[in-house]
Design a protein that fits this description.
Elements lengths: L1 H16 L7 H11 L8 E7 L4 E8 L3 H6 L3 E2 L5 H8 L3 E4 L4 H4 L14 E9 L2 E10 L6 H39 L3 H11 L4 H8 L3 H15 L4 H6 L4
Antiparallel strand pairs: 1-2, 1-6, 2-3, 4-5, 5-6
Length: 242
């Protein structure tokens, strides 16, 4: 009963934290690692997106090496892994036992993973009932119980609602820059410069590409900043609408 009450408390705190519009997906993974099963139990957290082409792509993580992150950018659904199985079967996949991990999931040897895995759980993230991604949690001390599985189902639903919330928020924030761009009447060159800023180009690169002096591009950039009401190149690029 105490553990059930604790799960309920964690779920409430988790849902409250997700209401922060500044929360990133990496923040989400860190939050899950720290708050779900207690500090230190969940050592690695991975968040995958299900791409339209039919593969999983790692979009956020906690506790993974750079090699592991790079290896999990394109995981076909026909690979037998906890994350892909959770998507294919649309259910939580929980496995406990390091010795039998490669036997249970033959494809796991193709993808670098932490060597100290003793338990792993993969949770489908659903939007309107259909999987749109997967959450993978692994560690050496994950408690396995019926109440724990029910708790993870609740967490999956909360994260799915968070996706809907993010989509709605993004739609609201996109309408303002669109109106702003229409009202400002940027010159064609300013619009082009803004687009190149969005791609991370420097003033010198823009000047060389467009055939103008660096000082001209700098002046155009200052005019662009003033019209947009921003102070950095990243802020200007974030408001760019192709």
């Amino acid at each position: 009963m105490d553990r059930d009450n604790n799960y309920l408390k964690i779920a409430k705190e988790f849902s409250t934290t997700l209401q922060n519009p500044a929360l990133t997906m990496d923040d989400l993974c860190r939050l899950i690692a720290i708050s779900t099963f207690g500090h230190g139990a969940a050592e690695h957290v991975s968040l995958f997106a299900l791409e339209p082409e039919g593969f999983l792509r790692l979009i956020a993580s906690f506790g993974l090496s750079a090699e592991t992150v790079l290896s999990q950018q394109h995981i076909p659904l026909d690979k037998d892994l906890p994350s892909t199985r959770a998507i294919r079967q649309n259910r939580i996949v929980w496995f406990d036992g390091l010795d039998n991990l490669s036997t249970e999931f033959p494809s796991i040897s193709e993808f670098p993973h932490p060597l100290n895995l003793e338990a792993v759980v993969a949770i489908p993230i659903r939007k309107v009932g259909s999987p749109i991604g997967a959450l993978l949690i692994s560690g050496s001390n994950l408690p396995i119980s019926d109440s724990g599985l029910e708790f993870l189902e609740v967490m999956s639903s909360i994260i799915g609602l968070w996706y809907l919330y993010r989509d709605a928020l993004a739609q609201q924030t996109l309408t303002a820059p669109l109106k702003l761009a229409l009202d400002l009447e940027l010159t064609p060159r300013e619009n082009l410069i803004q687009g190149l800023m969005a791609r991370g180009w420097t003033n010198l690169q823009i000047a060389e590409d467009l055939g103008f002096s660096n000082s001209t591009i700098r002046q155009d950039g200052m005019s662009l900043f003033a019209k947009l009401g921003v102070h950095t190149r990243k802020e200007a690029g974030d408001l760019y609408i192709p």
